[in-house]
Amino acid sequence: MAARKLRELLETEDRSLSKLVELLAELSLRIVREIPRTLGMTEGMNIYGEQQTELDVWSNGLLTKKLLRSGLVRQVASEEMETVMTADHGEYTVALDPLDGSSNIKTNNLMGTIIGIYHDKPLPATGRDLLSALYFLYGPYVEAVVGTKSGVYLAAPAGRGTGASKFISTGEPHRLPQKGSVYGIGGSRDKWTPRVHEFADTLEKKKLKFRYGGSFVGDYNQVLCSGGFFAYPELLDAPDGKYRLQFESNPIGYITERAGGKASTGKGRILDVEPVSISQRVPTYLGNKELVSEYEDLSRTSLGLSAER
Ligand code: F6P
Ligand code: MN
Prior knowledge:
Layout: E1 4-5, H1 6-11, H2 15-34, E2 41-45, E3 51-53, H3 54-69, E4 73-78, E5 85-86, E6 92-100, E7 111-119, E8 130-138, E9 142-148, E10 151-156, H4 163-166, E11 168-169, E12 182-185, H5 194-205, E13 209-210, H6 216-226, E14 228-232, H7 245-258, E15 262-264, E16 284-287, H8 289-299
Helix pairs in contact: 2-3
The site of manganese (II) ion (MN) has 4 residues, from strand 6.
């Protein structure tokens, strides 16, 4: 299949969705340009008690403002805001993690922006209702990973033009490679439950290579491209793990499923979790179907019920 502009690719599917992705692509390129300019910290904490860096605040402001003024988006919720913001017009609702992995700013490691798009659904919403989900990975090049009902498209800003016209894709939907080669698991090892320890041993025995950089989009993207397993699991002191259902687990779960993989809370499908609040967290297990199913099976055994290793 011939290389195609991301914009044209999406236009064949849904014209207004393509306009929205066009705007998001343009804003992601602005965010990545801003990174080296704002390396300081502000006083602010987000609602989860994490310190917000200047760039978190700035990216959140930029995305929220531009989306609400676009005429396309009626509601925006963000990991960095306590309340859902509303505009007068617009057919979409958008859930945002404006700068995922922002603790990596100082060390110049990977970061990204995660976006979940719903058609006319109030937030919080179930992942099942997502119309599309995407992320922009801020690595050596900015990569757009866009999941729609027809599949997952990877694109890089290799073309001329701006926004999504600049992003070029092979035009071929991406699938998780059948045999996985890498894995990553977040959280301190001493807080992992016995079943997570046990499963990490299993992955080592299967000769998967451990790779962890501390950024969801970065760590996940290597699993999407090389196949394998990525989790931010339940922890002994945080049974719901770290990731927020609305802003992190649902959008990436959607992309995983569209690419032929599986997205689980350890007990069931992430996209089926009924939302109870905008800020709720869920344990998150993603990757090749067989590996995620194997972890779910392990969860059902008595090993998982013991608190000691
Ligand atoms: O959710 C924020 C985040 O920075 C993710 O991008 C990343 O996967 C995770 O936190 C890293 O957490 P930890 O430092 O506990 O490994
Ligand atoms: Mn995040």
